Amino acid sequence: MGSDPHQLSLLQGFGTPKNAPGTSPAAATNPVAQVLIETSLPHLDRIFDYVVPEALDAEAVPGARVKARFGGQEMSGFITRRTSNAPEGVKLAPLAKVVSAQPVLTDELLRLATAVAERYAGNVSDVLRAAIPARVAKVDKEFAARPEQPVAPDATSADGAGYPEPSAGAAEAYAGYEGAGDFLAQLAAGAAPRAVLASHKSYGRASWAAQVAHAVASVRQSGRGAVVVVPDAKDLASLEAELQQVLGADQYVRLTAEDGPTPRYRNYLRLLHGEVTVAVGTRSAAYAPVQDLGLVALWDDGDDLLLEQRSPYQHAREVLLLRSAQSGCAALFAGVSRSGEVERLVGSGWASALTPSRPFLRKATPRILNTADSFQQERDPMLRHARLPHAAWRAAQEGLERGPVLVQVARTGFSPALSCQDCRTPARCTDCNGPLAQSGRTATPACRWCGRLATNYACPECGSHRLRASVAGALRTAEELGRAFPGATVVSSSGDHIKSVVESKNALVVATPGAEPVAPEGYAAALLLDGNAMLSRESLRTPEDVLRKWFRAASLVKPSSEGGLVVVTADQEAVVAPLVRWDPAGAAAREMQLRRELQLPPAVRIAALTGKASGIEAFMADFELGGSLRSVGPVELPSREVQERPGESSEHRLLLFFSYQDGPKVTAALRHRKAALAAKRVPDPVQVRCDGIDLL
DNA sequence: GTGCGAGTATGA
DNA sequence: CATACTCGCACC
Predict the structure, then answer these.
(1) CA angle A676-A680-A683, nearest 5°?
(2) A462 is an annotated ligand-binding site residue
(3) Same-domain status, A354 and A449
(4) Can you tell me the mean pLDDT for A338-346?
């Protein structure tokens, strides 16, 4: 070909009146669309330019979802900008079509997704996949027909004459919390305070949900919007109940996968167009396109549901932290317990702690009793051989006269119940008739009720000594306990049968952690039964996680002034102590102190490289360690394959440890390396995952 | 993934 | 010397 090919194509692209047959003229102004292609290939995760044909000019707005020919195939992407100048030295392909003219990728969202991708050494388009709901054609039509009405949705609409002063409701929700009034006032005044809220209740007027709802109401007084993220549907229901009280049902939208594509997309567009300015939902709601954002809030950040399950495995807390930094808005992290990450925010002074005062807490929280406590055991020598620990038994019995009683049991699989290998008769404790279970890693089965070890168990039916694991979820436990407490209505909540609310006064509610229904008046008592089994899990995170589950259950129980009592049965007194004292902040501070000394997360950041040993070696070949960056491994992972194929090398994992300060540098380098290797298509690709809490 | 150009093998 | 084919890599 004789002449310069770029020259030729540019002339064509810019629409000289007479074009080659088949090419349509380009748009008159800003004929170039910068498009972010949706791909999970790291080296292609960037912006490419296309010519906008005149026919697509009107629809091809920044933020629109489009299709474009890329490489061999037509791929989808989003227009990030329209510009006038084409890049030098490339010939531009035309945009194939505009899928939807709704500008779903806003500037702000692109900036956020980019920051998240950088933080996690991942792809921008992977982040966007979680952030932008699937398009629904009929919803597009609704919005196309609707006259553009960027209503100022501010303090005028629902609140009528403005928000009813530092409302009575807000005062009640935050009673006992020093500094709360100031925090709310700052929100209302348009400032951007950042706080870590130590909620103590999960029901009633002073619940975390009420507290968060009032924070949202305050920020709305300043005319700004808010985003609230919660781990699951049950928490969302609690929050929505309060928001309806405080704001009104039409003043917010929910964004959650559970609603299905149509309402989710509709709500997304309503936010996008400023029809509503408050978004609540599960983890993907962190990206909600709220206009004029004033507050991001997160409830219970320790819940692992907030961790995205797809690459780059981002956590809603980090997303919201990045977002609040970018938009300079207020931030609120609420929880009954406190995660290590949030403790860092308090420790560094980034956020202030909103904590109820000691004397207030003493009255407002239930009494906590540890039956495994040596002091208790001395006073109650019957304990080891009683049926349920005596104290637990009595707490339940007496509690049932005053209200519902919660029994928290470990999830199925944590401590599978045992039955006879030969005749399938359920294995029972010879002392108390409770179910036997394999708890943790100890070989000897133990009674789940009294904890007694069943050494040398013999089946009462056939005399066999062999035991097999059988599934005993909350359902089975409920059955067992129902027999133990005749007269009580036994309710079970776990797995896919989660109940949000329990109304019955004399219900014995058996629930797994995270599935506990709310009792509107509070539980009279709670028994936290499987502490030892839960604590036996081998993970760096275990104590924090178990404590979190206990605190959440305990926050559902009436205060001690109304007879509320929590009985916990666990041997590790160091873990139980903060619960007994109701001191989540102290527990988090101590745990973080330990982590800092050991240089373990979340005091430092980590990245895990997973893949074939050869792949990891290639990845690390000219990767510079230094500064705070150190590497551990690689170690071979226990293979999940039933049979390792000969010649096929197994998966390995290398861990990188680095400081938060060096984080951006390290993740940028990881990302760069990933892209370079992917472009070269070196064999044995390596998966990079940052700050996976379940890795250690 | 796929199309394309460079480079190389192959046959007339 | 012309044509067939593979390989690598850019992809707007």
Answers:
(1) 110
(2) yes
(3) no
(4) 97
